[in-house]
């Protein structure tokens, strides 16, 4: 947090000292933009309000189409550094989206593709076609670290344009030709932007430690968790509260731990009669929340590559 504030003060000072270059009007606009972005950054660090328990009118649904990643960040909450190469098949995606679309009744407003790194998926464009086929009115987004964006060919960009996808890049301290990528995206009328909570010069990670004994108070953890009722995934016919449960077998396999997923930890899509049942499931604590020490969340971890140490996650 201290680094974030110091960085923001530097940037505000720089804008003010550049007034002779940009003039008063442009400087004022830049200052307002910077302060608005700062407000967003600070919100990102604050604990979420306790509205987790309320049934939301609509849901955002994400698909984790790869488990592994080409960046392998310290403490990745999808456990990607520990994952073997694994891709969600278009057949599975089709079944899940088909079933969801038959019951959602306009209550899904967003379909997001993430990972791991989704651009590693060899059938990514088949999946984007499926998203458009089953959810033509939802907002479509790919969340990526951006490493593979500049090497994509026109077929990729045309497909994203056809299927109305936007690209959200999570910013890391790696060299990324963002301006080149943005120009290419604009050529195909695709929105391409950096995600919220990311900053130009720094990347600070946080860690929500896992409690291997599973003896936290699940209700308190759920209410305080920023992912609860907010970061929903569909995976192999099941609806999950968060990416942690989707990929916990990767963690268990790697560290030989035994964090158990109970059948009450997910909603089985085949048993859904309507989408309200899913919205109701999402507002309630699940047994797995007892493994998350949300109140011990650590902020301000300097970004670096994972060394695959247990201490990155507990
Ligand atoms: S880029 Fe994202 S998915 Fe990949 S390792 Fe880093 S945090 Fe995990
Ligand atoms: S298991 Fe519960 S507390 Fe843990 S990240 Fe998921 S929703 Fe949050």
Question: Helix amount, in percent?
Answer: 25-40%
Mean pLDDT: 89
Beta-strand share of residues: 5-15%
Strand order of the biggest β-sheet: 5-4-3-2-1-7-8-9
- What is the CA-atom radius of gyration, in angstroms? 20 Å
Question: How would you characterize this protein structure?
Answer:
By secondary structure, the chain is α/β, with parallel strands linked by helices. It folds into two domains: 2-45; 51-312, Aldolase class I (TIM Barrel, Alpha-Beta Barrel), CATH 3.20.20.70. 36% of the residues lie in helices and 15% in strands. The chain is built from ten helices and ten strands. It has helices at 2-17, 19-45, 90-103, 124-134, 154-162, 178-187, 218-224, 243-246, 248-255, 275-282, and strands at residues 59-64, 108-114, 139-144, 165-169, 192-194, 204-207, 232-235, 238-240, 266-268, 298-302. The strands form two sheets. An eight-stranded mixed β-sheet has the order 5-4-3-2-1-7-8-9. A two-stranded antiparallel ribbon has the order 6-10. Helix 5 links the parallel strand 3 (139-144) and strand 4. Helix 1 packs antiparallel against helix 2 and helix 3 (90-103) packs parallel to helix 4. It is globular, with a radius of gyration of 20 Å. The mean pLDDT is 89. The structure holds iron/sulfur cluster (2 copies). One iron/sulfur cluster is lined by residues 69, 71-73, 76, 78, 80-81, 115-117, 145, 170.
